[in-house]
Amino acid sequence: MALSSDRKPVEETDLSRFNNDWFTPGGVFRRSLWYLTNALFFLNPLHPFSGVKVWLLRLFGARIGKGVVIKPGTNIKFPWQLSIGDHCWIGENVWIDNLTKVTIGSHVCLSQGAMILTGNHDFTSRHFDLMIGAITLQNGVWIGARAVVCPGVTCYSHAVLTVQSVATGDLESYGIYQGNPAVKIRDRKIEIKNDKKA
Questions:
Q1: What phi and psi, each to the nearest 5 degrees, are found at residue 135?
Q2: How confident is the model at residue 100 (pLDDT cuts 50, 70, 90)?
Q3: Apex CA 179: angle with CA 178 and CA 181, to 5°?
Q4: What CATH architecture applies to the domain 26-187?
Q5: Handedness of CA 173, 178, 181, 184 (dihedral sign)
Q6: Cα 190 to the center of its chain, rounded Å
Q7: Strand pairing partners for 65?
Q8: Phi then psi for 37, rounded to 5 degrees?
Q9: Positive or negative CA dihedral for 49, 55, 58, 64?
Q10: What phi and psi, each to the nearest 5 degrees, are found at residue 15?
Q11: Contact 1/9 with Cβ under 8 angstroms?
Q12: The whole model's pTM is what?
């Protein structure tokens, strides 16, 4: 036990006693097979084909809609904890660290380097206990480049998290959020234009 500046005893973190036996994300064989698949087809920058990636994700238990684009360098922890709707874009080097459920609606864009983090640690615990919280990104959400969505957050319909911002709480529908922690800076207005080509 250490002493504080006023010589009072204080507790210290003891990582040697960390224990997450309660956490069961899937069998060892399943996780090992996915680790290899993820390295070969998702993290590998030489494999650009979204169709193969979608097929593999479904094979491992993910629910994936139509028209989903997955760029090279994407890192997905456990596909059996992932649901993606229709016509979503997953950019280069996106990290979906889904220790628990991640639900992504339709027409969602995750830009380059975005991080979807469902896991955290309890810094008040000596043993640095693992904490997890599901994440939901509703239809039309845009997570900007290198932005971070933290455990337990819901980004409601068409919310925007700007470049390098950190969402530690829910984002309201059609809100544009910026900063760390992210705060709402304005409303998102989507113009209805004539889609007919000249």
A1: -120, 135
A2: very high
A3: 115
A4: 3 Solenoid (2.160)
A5: negative
A6: 25
A7: none
A8: -65, -45
A9: positive
A10: -65, -20
A11: yes
A12: 0.91
- Max alpha carbon distance in the chain (Å)? 78
Assign 196 a pLDDT band (cuts: 50, 70, 90).
low
Q: What is the 3-state secondary structure (H, E, C) of the chain?
A: CEECCCCCEECCCCHHHCCCCCCCCCCHHHHHHHHHHHHHHHCCCCCCCHHHHHHHHHHCCCEECCCCEECCCCEECCHHHEEECCCCEECCCCEEECCCCEEECCCCEECCCCEEECEEECCCCCCCCEEECCEEECCCCEECCCCEECCCCEECCCCEECCCCEECCCECCCEEEEECCEEEEEECCCCCCCCCCC
pLDDT tens per residue across span 128-147:
999 999 999 999 999 999 99
* Residue 53: exposure state from Cβ atoms within 10 A (0-12, 13-18, ≥19): buried
Q: Where are the domains of the chain?
A: 26-187
Instruction: Quote the tokens at residue 85.
Output: 């709707």
Burial of 177 (0-12, 13-18, 19+ CB in 10 A): buried
